[in-house]
Prior knowledge:
Blueprint: E1 2-11, E2 14-24, E3 27-32, H1 39-47, E4 54-59, E5 62-63, H2 69-78, E6 80-84, H3 95-99, H4 111-120, H5 136-148, E7 154-158, H6 166-179, E8 184-189, E9 200-205, E10 208-211, H7 233-246, H8 248-269, H9 276-288, E11 294-297, E12 300-303, E13 317-320, H10 326-331, E14 336-341, E15 346-352, E16 355-358, E17 370-374, E18 383-387, H11 388-394, H12 398-401, E19 405-414, E20 421-436, E21 438-443, E22 446-451, E23 457-458, H13 460-469, E24 479-483, H14 486-498, H15 507-549, H16 551-559, H17 564-588, H18 590-601, H19 608-635, H20 638-641
Parallel strand pairs: 3-8, 3-9, 6-7, 7-8, 18-20
Antiparallel strand pairs: 1-2, 1-4, 4-5, 9-10, 11-24, 12-13, 14-24, 15-16, 15-19, 17-20, 18-23, 19-20, 21-22
Helix pairs in contact: 7-8, 7-17, 8-15, 8-17, 8-19, 9-15, 14-15, 15-19, 17-19
Amino acid sequence: MFEIKNVSKQYNGEFALNDISFKMGKGLNFIIGASGSGKTTLLKIISGMEQDFDGEAYYCGKSIKELTSNEKGYYYNNIFGFIWQDFNLLEDLSVLENVLLPQYLKNNQNQKYAATLLTDLKIFDLAHQKVKYLSGGQKQRVAIARELMKNPQVIIADEPTSALDEKTAKTTMDILRDISKKRTVIVVTHDTNLIDNQSKIIHLDKGELIATPQEIVTTTENLKYDKSHRLSIKNAFALTKSNVRRKFGRFSVSTLALMVAGILCLTTVSGAIGGSSQGEFDKLIDTYGEGLKDITVVGSFTSAKGTEGNTEEKPSADVTQDIGGLYDKYVGDERVDFTAFSQAVDDIKVTVSGKEYQIQKTGSVPTINKLVAGNMPTGKNNEIVVPESFVKTLGISNEQLIGKEIDFNGSVYNWDTGEPVLKDVSLTATIVGVADTTAYDEVEGKVIEYSVDDSFFFSKSALDDLRGQAEIKNKPMDFLIRAKTPADMISIKDELNENGIVPLGRFELVEDIVRLNKQTTEQSGTASVLIGILSIVMVIAIFLITGFMRKREFAIYKVSGFHNAHLSLLNLTEMITQTITAILLMLVTSPLIDLATKGLFGVNILTTKMLLTGVLLIALLAIVAYFTTAIAIIKTNTTKALKTGDR
């Protein structure tokens, strides 16, 4: 039983309802009046959709004004049923799916009862038809069936026949009269032709009550809160499955938005946008070898005039510099890949496993392109790195040679007297590494490559032994520094220059790359930030637009008993489904994505690490999307979304 006590409601200073009081119970009840008389406002108050009013409204002793969100959801799922002028059905769902909507908040969906209702309402043969293809009368029957699935105590109908023809309107009213024999049915209408002699009438005019029901009101039994009212995870995923199937276009757009935004963000974190300068340096490495990053530190050298096409006349000059202690300084530097002594040895003969080999003399300074096996000689014992070309003459693999002992014999020049004196040297050392000793030189604009087969590299202890045998005392040991990056190479070069040391290397060539890298880093950094922001904005925009386009859908859920917590769980299951689909789609299309990033940025992102990063980025964007949709859910005003009228 409803009891309305001194209820008033104002809009913009005007009374929509002015101090009305009445009681209403079982049977068919009509709220009538002209447009603007307050009918819809009264309906909103009775149903709990409007709780900001003066006075009191009760249903079975429970204050409707004080219903919490959870209690209101329980009422809409178990006590109140709603039939609307424009039906308020989910157009892309089938008849049966619409009818079963309130049942998702139950432990089990009573499909047998749904079939019975559809049969009684003569629409059983339309059970699997999409609602949008039905006539107005058929839609109204679907709406009635959906509300009867709740087995409600009250049916509230807002202009239920205004969108129907005369015959269909009469049929709808006959159904409502039959329902009113066991329930309270409240019909808001301006059509007095629908009213018969047995109907109870509440007549409003400009917010004033001018006619009320008879004093004797049949009461409704007391409320019993013994029914389950929750959305299980299982039912949330079932509802999500239905929504995906029926709204596949919307699902596809949202999923693609997550995947594309994730890929765009991946290009920023992978450094793809800023990888152009690195790509240019890689091309130089292909041309000049890894030795391009070498810095050679020598105790003395002669500067020559007119190098590399420079015809400016400059005198030759001998340069002598103190490089003592520099080797130890750079051995453990984090910018350095490795260091190696550049000791030239002539007339080399080596003995391995009892067999002697003569090494061809090249007349070049020992050169290392890259280490192909093992490690550089840094230990305290006599250790040596041998050329890969020598290993090939032995007929074994690089790895097989590592750890073997080698008897090394050769000659070293002693320049202590100012004149070269050739001294014989020999030692026994352990092979710890194998090096590619290919050298690259530019001649008349063309780069030529050749192998320096007599490039052997020694540990400091081994080299001290050799120099001791050659009686070298004054000349410091020359060495090279292999920098990790072009920037590291220029940084070390500048540092040496500041300390008065002139190193040797292809600095001009590398400096151009470093300068390009600095420029592109600044530009790509800005571009990466913008792309990252645009990706997030794209996701927010799409999900915000989609969310607000779904406000009517959310409102239909709410009048079916779903409150915000239920819709949040549904939002979560939908987002999980979209996220998993977006990730799978990214993984499946990753070869195509990789081709695109190679073409645009010259960078390969098809790596396990990058794909895992992409998965994480999509998941993070999905969290943003989840909260964006949650805003639309929270902001959904049921009465406005369902357009229930203004007064």
